[in-house]
Specification:
By secondary structure, the chain is of the alpha/beta class. The protein has 2 domains: about 1-305 and about 390-495, Amidase signature (AS) enzymes (Alpha-Beta Complex), CATH 3.90.1300; about 305-385, no CATH class. The protein has 17 helices and 11 strands. The protein has helices spanning about 1-5, 10-15, 25-40, 50-65, 110-115, 160-165, 180-190, 220-230, 250-255, 275-290, 310-325, 345-355, 360-370, 380-400, 425-430, 435-440, 470-490, and strands at about 45, 80, 120-125, 170-175, 190-195, 215-220, 265, 295-300, 405-410, 445-450, 460-465. The strands form 2 sheets. The protein has an 8-stranded mixed sheet with strand order 4-6-5-10-11-9-7-8, with helices on both faces. A 3-stranded mixed sheet has the order 1-3-2. The longest helix is centred in the C-terminal third of the chain and has 21 residues, at about 380-400.
C-alpha cells in the first residue's frame, strides 16, 4: 500500500472518483504508515482511526450508490493541526493546560473538511499555543524532521509539516501567525500557504494573536495545496474578520502554471547577508528558472521590513497575553491547587494552574505582552509597533506597484538541531524574519521547495508573496517553479528523503 501513501491528494481524489481504490483502503494505508513511523517522528498528538474509517466507509457507500453530490476531495484523508477545535476529538493546542479537553463544536475549517467527506486521521503536534519556530515548545515533546530526526521540522506547525514529509497524511491544515505554515514547509520540503487575512475563517481557531493568525493549507504539491485551499476558504458569518468575496481561482492557477509576463520582485531586505549560503544559492537558481519560464525580475526596496521582527514581537505578545487570560482554571482544562493552602482563593488556584499548565515560552510572551500593554508603556511599545506595521503595509503597496509578486528565501537557514537554540530565544525568533512582514500586512504567502542546500543536504524553501486576495498568483508562480524543478530532479524533492525506521506490527 506504499503507493497510496506516496500518491498526491489529487491522484488519490482521481483514483477514488474512478473507483480504482476505496477510501477505506486509502485511510488504512495511512493508518498503517502512522503505526510504522510516528514513533520516530511524533507528528500526531491524537490519532482517530475509528472516526477516519467510519467517514471513509460512508464515502465509499455513497459513491457505490451513485451519489453525484460527493465533493471532488471526498475520501481523501487529512490531518488537522491541534489548534483547531474538533467536536469529539481532543484539542490541546500543544499545551498541558488543555490536556484532555474535548470541544463541543467544530471550527469552521473542520466543519468544511467534514462536509467535503474528508476523513480526519488525527490532530498534529505544535508549539504550545503556536508560540515557536521549532515545535520544541510543545507540552507533549517535539516533532522531528523526517530528513534528519535530530533536527526540527519547523514551527509552530512542525506536526503538520512532518506528517506530510513522512507520508502519514497527504494533506494537513496549518495556522500562520508569523510564518508557522511557511517556515515548516521550507525545512521539510513541503508546500504551505498562508491565505489573505480573512480569506479562511478563524472561527474555532484557538487564538494566539487575533490580528495575525490565519489558517491555511499544507500539502506536498502546489496543486494539492490549492485543492485544500478551495475546501477551507470562503466567507464565514461567524468570523467578523472574514472577507465577503469569492475564493480566488487558486486551483485553476495551479493547473495552468503560467508566469508569462509576470514581474517577480526580489526583496532587497530578505536576501544576502544573514542567509545560509546554500539557501541563497537555491533561491537564486529558482528565480532563474522563473525567468526561463517567461517572468521578469526586478529588485524592490522595503526599508521598513528591517523593523518587522521587533514590531511583531511586541504586537504578538500583547495580543497573546490578552487572549490567554481566558485560561483561568475555572471553565475548561486542568485545575491545579496550590500546595500548603487549605482553602485557596480563585486567584491562587488560577496562578497555580497557569504556572503548571503553561510552558516557558508561553510564560515569556505573556510577561512581555503584559508589560507592553501596561500603563505608561502602551504608547512607547505597542502603539509604536502598530505605527511600524502601517509603514510595512506601505512598503508592500509601493512594491506591488512595480511587481506582481515578491519572492525571498522562506527561512534564513535549513533546519537546525533539536535543542540547539532553546537557550537563545532571539536566535529562534530570527527564523521568522522573512515571513513576519506578510502577517503584519495581512497578505497571502506561500513556501515551495527550492532544493537541498549543498552544505548539509537539507531542504530549502522559496517564499512567494502577493497582494490581498490575489492568492491565485502564489499558485501560478509556485506551480511553475515546482514543474521546472521536478523536471530537473526527475521527481518531487521528497523522493530524495531518507527512509525512516519502521516499527512493524
Amino acid at each position: 500500500m506504499n503507493h497510496l501513501t506516496r500518491a498526491s491528494a489529487a491522484e488519490l481524489a482521481d483514483a477514488l472518483g474512478r473507483k480504482e481504490v476505496s477510501s477505506v483502503e486509502v485511510v488504512q494505508a495511512h493508518l498503517d504508515q502512522i503505526a510504522a513511523v510516528d514513533h520516530a517522528v511524533h507528528s500526531y498528538l491524537h490519532v482517530d482511526a475509528e472516526g477516519a474509517l467510519a467517514t471513509a466507509r460512508a464515502v465509499d457507500d455513497a459513491r457505490a450508490d451513485g451519489d453525484s453530490d460527493l465533493h471532488v476531495m471526498a475520501g481523501v484523508p487529512i490531518a488537522v493541526k491541534d489548534v483547531m477545535t474538533t467536536k469529539g476529538l481532543p484539542t490541546t493546542c500543544g499545551s498541558k493546560i488543555l490536556q484532555g479537553w474535548v470541544p463541543p463544536y467544530d471550527s469552521t475549517v473542520v466543519a468544511k473538511i467534514r462536509a467535503a467527506g474528508m476523513p480526519i486521521l488525527g490532530k498534529t503536534n505544535l508549539d504550545e499555543f503556536a508560540m515557536g519556530s521549532s515545535t520544541e515548545h510543545s507540552g507533549y515533546g517535539p516533532s522531528h524532521n523526517p530528513w534528519d530526526l535530530d533536527r526540527i521540522p519547523g514551527g509552530s506547525g512542525g506536526g503538520s509539516s512532518s506528517v506530510l514529509a513522512s507520508f502519514q497524511a497527504p494533506l494537513a491544515t496549518g495556522t500562520d501567525t508569523g510564518g508557522s505554515i511557511r517556515q515548516p514547509a521550507a525545512v521539510t520540503g513541503t508546500v504551505g500557504t498562508k491565505p489573505t487575512y480573512g480569506g479562511v475563517s478563524r472561527y474555532g481557531l484557538v487564538a494566539l494573536a487575533s490580528s495575525l493568525d490565519q489558517a491555511g493549507p499544507c500539502a506536498r504539491t502546489v496543486l494539492d495545496t490549492a485543492l485544500l485551499h478551495a475546501v477551507m476558504g470562503g466567507y464565514d458569518p461567524k468570523d467578523s474578520t472574514s472577507i465577503h468575496a469569492p475564493i480566488p481561482p487558486v486551483v485553476r492557477a495551479a493547473q495552468r502554471a503560467d508566469v508569462t509576463g509576470m514581474r517577480i520582485g526580489v526583496v532587497k531586505q530578505l536576501t544576502g547577508a544573514g542567509y545560509q549560503a546554500g539557501v541563497q544559492q537555491r533561491f537564486d537558481e529558482a528565480v532563474a528558472l522563473l525567468v526561463d519560464a517567461g517572468a521578469s525580475v526586478v529588485e524592490v526596496d522595503c526599508p521598513n521590513f528591517e523593523y518587522a521582527l521587533a514590531a511583531y514581537y511586541l504586537i504578538l505578545p500583547s495580543e497573546a497575553s490578552s487572549n490567554l487570560a481566558k485560561f483561568d482554571a475555572m471553565r475548561y482544562g486542568i485545575r491545579v491547587l496550590p500546595q500548603g493552602i487549605d482553602a485557596p482563593s480563585a486567584e491562587q488556584v488560577m496562578a497555580a494552574t497557569r504556572d503548571a499548565g503553561f510552558g516557558d515560552e508561553v510564560k515569556r510572551r505573556i510577561i512581555l505582552g503584559t508589560y507592553a500593554l501596561s500603563s505608561g508603556y502602551y504608547d512607547a511599545y505597542y502603539g509604536q509597533a502598530q505605527k511600524v506595521r502601517r509603514l510595512i503595509a506601505q512598503d508592500f503597496e509601493r512594491a506591488f506597484g512595480v511587481a506582481d509578486v515578491l519572492v525571498s528565501p522562506t527561512a534564513p537557514t535549513t533546519a537546525f538541531r533539536i535543542g540547539e537554540k532553546l537557550d537563545d530565544p532571539m536566535a529562534m525568533y530570527l527564523n521568522d524574519v522573512a515571513t513576519i512582514p506578510a502577517n503584519l500586512a495581512g497578505l497571502p504567502g506561500m513556501s515551495v521547495p527550492s532544493g537541498l542546500a549543498p552544505e548539509d543536504g537539507l531542504p530549502t524553501g522559496l517564499q512567494i508573496l502577493a497582494p490581498a486576495m490575489a492568492d491565485d498568483r502564489l499558485y501560478a508562480v509556485g506551480a511553475t517553479l515546482e514543474r521546472a524543478l521536478v523536471a530537473r530532479w526527475g521527481g518531487h524533492l521528497l523522493a530524495q528523503a531518507p527512509v525512516l525506521p519502521r516499527k512493524e506490527a
